[in-house]
Write a sequence for this structure.
């Protein structure tokens, strides 16, 4: 079983930055592809970014390309989401997700691909 704990959310103004962190339990974190998703009120959970277990591959939804960066530190069992130039439409609860398997360059971008989820962290961007 994998447990994920997110942190780093908060209330910021448009144009500000935030860095979300997700710490995972388990000795095999270094072999888990990871993803970040978000869910705004009244909307479905949507993909934001993903990273392969090796860190060699990343993938982003179009709306965050060039502003958000996903990274991981396998020695710390942690995946990060650096969010720059935040916009009000980025307001949501952000979740990290994990799964096992895949090659060193595999990334996954659907909710159904991930069996393990954190509790979420709220990000609110004011205009």
């Amino acid at each position: 079983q994998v447990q994920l704990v997110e942190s780093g959310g908060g209330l910021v103004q448009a144009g500000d930055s935030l860095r979300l962190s997700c710490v995972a339990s388990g000795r095999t974190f270094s072999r888990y592809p990871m993803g970040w998703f978000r869910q705004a009120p009244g909307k479905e959970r949507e993909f934001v970014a993903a990273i392969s277990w090796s860190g060699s591959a990343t993938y982003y939804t179009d709306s965050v390309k060039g502003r958000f960066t996903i990274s991981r530190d396998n020695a710390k069992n942690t995946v990060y989401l650096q969010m720059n130039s935040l916009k009000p439409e980025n307001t949501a609860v952000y979740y990290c997700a994990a799964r096992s398997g895949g090659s060193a360059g595999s990334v996954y971008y659907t909710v159904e691909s991930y069996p393990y989820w954190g509790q979420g962290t709220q990000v609110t961007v004011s205009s």
Remarks:
- The chain is about 0% helix and 45% strand.
